[in-house]
Amino acid sequence: MKKIAYLFLASLLFINCKNDTIDDVEVKEIEEPKIEEEFGFILNDFNVVKDTIKQGETFGFIMDRHGVTPAQVHAVVNAVKDTIDVALLRAGRPYTILKSKDSLNKAKVFIYQPTRVDYTVIKLDDSITTYRKKLPITTKRKIASGIITSSLSQAMSEEGLSQALVHELSSVYQWTVDFFKLQKGDNFKLIYNENYINDTVYAGIESVEATLLNHGGRPYYGFKYLTDSISGLADYYDENANTLRSFFLRAPLNYSRISSRFTKRRFHPVQKRWKAHLGTDYAAPHGTPIMATANGVVERSSYTSANGNYVKVKHNNTYSTQYLHMSKRAVKAGQRVKQGDVIGYVGSTGLATGPHVCYRFWYHGKQVDPYAIELPAAEPIKEEHKNAYFNFIKDLKVEIDAIPEKSL
What we know:
- The structure is a single chain.
- With 408 residues, the chain is of the alpha+beta class.
- The protein is 19% helix and 38% strand.
- The longest helix has 23 residues.
């Protein structure tokens, strides 16, 4: 009996010692490798090479560096020519090569990104395939506000807003507000949408839904509204359904200065005599794009010794415009153009001493100064659509009014 008792006690001691040993052992969980996915491929399954195209590099040069023979390159080029012209790969654009995870390290996939959003995939298998896709885009809705101390651009920059957004806001009010006359203390509010690649990489402005610019004690609202669901045409209107767009742009280019105004008497710098100057000259660098100031049809696209390269556009039975001294014309007679379309480029052809565009304006067949007449507004929202518009902007106006104003 005593022998049995001793054996029982010994077994208990053994078990306790064993448990103590297990308690002291640190048990670690084995982490599985993180699965990385891009362009629709599991990157973990490949050896991944990421690079950018250098100046002078060709598709064949890149493929040769990664073990693809000239014969294989030739086969790839012929197979993908309807989808991508590999001769047009641009220096500075990124590419990715996926290679097999074995001793051969063979190139299996070539991925080229011509833009931040678009990419083209070439599968280098026995059966060569190619396709184009876009990276996933998410849109984030944001609000912003700021106060002007010197310029709109600086005020928006101080709020961390992009130059793309500065351009968008300037475009909304380009017919309504003279940005050179903004005053210290004027302020703005915005409701806008930004695009992001893979939810993190900024990819530009999607849209500006609503704006409010308080200038000189007056509020200027702007609401983007789809007026034609078939064509997708949208425009900006104020709180009373009035368009913010004029029938005409004030100037045919983003000019640095007016070098000569419309006048009945000016000393001509080339002809060296006094004569009428029935146009407005805008000095600008050679090659600056010249825009049609309103919708219309090109009446003439020609050259004369005085006008140089010039374009004349008929907008309707009341208005016509003409653009002189172009270095190059970009439209032909009979072509229909829209407001803002590029119709030529600044030059100094004809009787001109330097690069500029002479902008001429006809009203009922008579040349007039566009700065001296009241230009017509664009077409307003039709009466039958106004109730729908007011319903559309109701909540937007409440929302933008509620954004706190910045103050000095």
